[in-house]
Amino acid sequence: MKRSDYNAIEQYMLQCMEDSAHDCEHVYRVLYTALDIAQTESSVDYDVLIAACLLHDIGRKEQFENPALCHAEVGAEKAVQFLTGAGYDGEFAAKVGGCIRSHRFRSSAPPASLEAEILLTPTKSM
Questions:
Q1: What pLDDT is recorded for position 20?
Q2: CA 92 and chain centroid, separation
Q3: SS in 3 state form for the chain?
């Protein structure tokens, strides 16, 4: 991932973070843990993993305002809209959205990729 892409995604994440329990420090812990896990795997799409880690909790504000919403679902939609609006490929955006959607694993949204499985691991424990 180019540094400019990382910076753009990080800036969007920072704009969305308003939940004190899951602040940007939580996001960075998830990212670093996921990157450690990824080193033990082969064929990881690091661009998808990094974007998904950075954006995985961007739907928290909406869930806080309306507890009937699932932050993972809201965050997945916001991430796809942000990424496609910023010129990222639709397939890339969909992969990132899928990871985010499944990071709060429910039977209706099991992890469908290695990157989603990796993201799920640190988010369960942090």
A1: 54
A2: 12
A3: CCHHHHHHHHHHHHHHCCCHHHCHHHHHHHHHHHHHHHCCCCCCCHHHHHHHHHHCCCCHHHHHHCCCCCHHHHHHHHHHHHHHHCCCCHHHHHHHHHHHHHCCCCCCCCCCCHHHHHHHHHHHHC
Contact 58, 44 (CB under 8 A): no
- The predicted-structure confidence for 21-72, as pLDDT tens digits, reads as follows 567 888 999 999 999 999 999 999 999 999 999 999 999 888 888 999 989 9
For 29, 41, 88, 111, 121, the CA distances from 63, given in Å and listed in that order, are 21, 33, 26, 21, 22
- Name residue 60's amino acid: R
> What is the pTM for the complete model shown?
0.91
pLDDT value at residue 109: 76
Please provide residue 47's backbone torsions phi and psi, each rounded to the nearest 5 degrees.
Answer: -65, -45
Contact 77, 57 (CB under 8 A): no
How many whole angstroms from its chain centre is CA 96? 7
